[in-house]
């Protein structure tokens, strides 16, 4: 038999290990989430991230090494985003009927998300670099990173803030909507998609197809609205 | 399955190419979604195989955010330094965005004379 240390060196350098760990961590998160009746506070993404970060820190594994395995999962984000066209198509009649209010709500939500984040972060004493990195945090990752760069933020910090925002929206959005007595699946999906991009959409999709379709649409429209409006507003403000 | 997956990738690739060529302010996959959506409108329906493949991919959409989310470990130091400002700003602004969007949509729809039909909701 080979010494365990040698086997670890071999496995740790192989993408198989971290790909498998990514799936296992998610499945554990998903089991817990299901067990507790899909409670939004037990978001499977959060549970998986906590498990994986703890494991990587404990074993002294770098994020780059981890990503060599996890990239295969990460890659599917592109085709899955394209696939959002299908629920959108299935729900198109509902979308078309309220196109005007829907577009206006996305623009208002987009401005509310970025400007309130900027105002609060600045008031609480965050530096200009962090404030600029936080501004596009409700937008889906690749476009948020581009906007942050334009505003003078740190794109890699923005990527993390985007994920944290998505998680916050997926966890706290549904209870807030219950509190506000918003029962309409279309409005619920739209709000989660604007505030919490893909992670919110993932949660909406698991709960209801109408909400999922509106959330995916809101995510795309919000990316567009924020990419156009935020740099303009920024040039007036600063 | 393979045909549907190929079609998804073709749409994504077309999106990336157009975004790159014209420096558009949206992600390639989002434009790819627009292309696929337009194709479905022209065709007038979703092929069964595509419905299945998309269903499989989207039922665990959240799994796909895990690798990027683990990137949090790269910024633990910076987050620790400004955790209060960042935490409060992220959570409060997210709640503001959820409330503004949902209430704006319902309010504007009511103003426009209730053209949309409300859709049930969680009990």
UniProtKB/TrEMBL annotation, chain A:
InterPro entries, per the entry: CidB/LrgB
Membrane-traversing stretches: 7-29, 41-60, 72-90, 102-124, 159-180, 213-237
Entries under PANTHER family matching the protein: PLASTIDAL GLYCOLATE_GLYCERATE TRANSLOCATOR 1, CHLOROPLASTIC (PTHR30249:SF0), PUTATIVE SEROTONIN TRANSPORTER (PTHR30249)
Cell compartment(s), UniProt: Membrane
UniProt cross-references to Pfam families, sorted A to Z: LrgB
Membrane topology: Multi-pass membrane protein
Native source organism of the sequence: Thalassobaculum fulvum
Domain of life: Bacteria
An annotated GO cellular component: membrane
Protein name: Membrane protein
Keywords: Membrane, Transmembrane, Transmembrane helix
Entry annotated with the keyword Transmembrane: yes
UniProtKB/TrEMBL annotation, chain B:
Membrane-spanning ranges: 25-42, 54-76, 82-108
Organism: Thalassobaculum fulvum
Record has Membrane as a keyword: yes
Pfam families cross-referenced by the UniProt entry: LrgA
Listed GO CC annotations: plasma membrane
Location in or out of the cell: Cell membrane
Main subcellular location of this protein, as a coarse class: membrane
Keyword list, A-Z: Cell membrane, Membrane, Transmembrane, Transmembrane helix
Membrane topology: Multi-pass membrane protein
Name used for this protein in its record: CidA/LrgA family protein
């Amino acid at each position: 038999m080979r010494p365990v240390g040698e086997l670890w060196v071999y496995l740790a350098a192989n993408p198989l290990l971290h790909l498998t760990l990514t799936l296992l961590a998610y499945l554990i998160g998903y089991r817990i989430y299901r067990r507790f009746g899909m409670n939004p506070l037990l978001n499977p993404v959060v549970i998986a991230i906590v498990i994986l970060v703890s494991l990587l820190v404990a074993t002294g594994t770098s994020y780059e090494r981890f990503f060599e395995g996890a990239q295969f999962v990460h890659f599917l984000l592109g085709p899955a985003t394209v696939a959002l066209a299908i629920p959108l198509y299935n729900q198109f009649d509902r979308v078309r009927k309220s196109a005007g209010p829907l577009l206006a709500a996305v623009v208002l939500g987009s401005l509310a998300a970025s400007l309130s984040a900027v105002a609060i972060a600045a008031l609480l004493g965050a530096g200009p670099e962090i404030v600029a990195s936080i501004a596009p945090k409700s937008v889906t990752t690749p476009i948020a990173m581009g906007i942050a760069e334009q505003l003078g933020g740190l794109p890699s910090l923005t990527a993390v803030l985007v994920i944290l925002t998505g998680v916050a929206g997926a966890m706290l959005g549904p209870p807030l909507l219950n509190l506000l007595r918003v029962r309409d699946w279309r409005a619920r999906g739209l709000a989660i998609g604007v505030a919490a991009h893909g992670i919110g959409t993932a949660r909406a999709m698991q709960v209801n197809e109408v909400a999922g379709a509106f959330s995916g649409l809101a995510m795309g429209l919000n990316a567009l609205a924020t990419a156009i409006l935020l740099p303009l507003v920024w040039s007036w403000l600063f | 399955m393979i045909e549907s997956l190929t079609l998804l990738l073709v749409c994504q690739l077309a999106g990336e190419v157009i975004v790159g060529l014209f420096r558009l302010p949206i992600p390639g996959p989002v434009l790819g979604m627009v292309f696929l959506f337009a194709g479905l409108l022209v065709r007038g329906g979703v092929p069964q195989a595509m419905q299945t493949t998309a269903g499989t991919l989207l039922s665990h959409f959240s799994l796909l955010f895990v690798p990027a989310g683990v990137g949090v470990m790269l910024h633990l130091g910076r987050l620790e330094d400004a955790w209060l400002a960042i935490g409060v700003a992220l959570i409060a602004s997210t709640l503001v965005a959820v409330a503004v969007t949902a209430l704006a949509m319902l309010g504007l729809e009511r103003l426009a004379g209730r053209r949309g039909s409300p859709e049930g909701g969680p009990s």
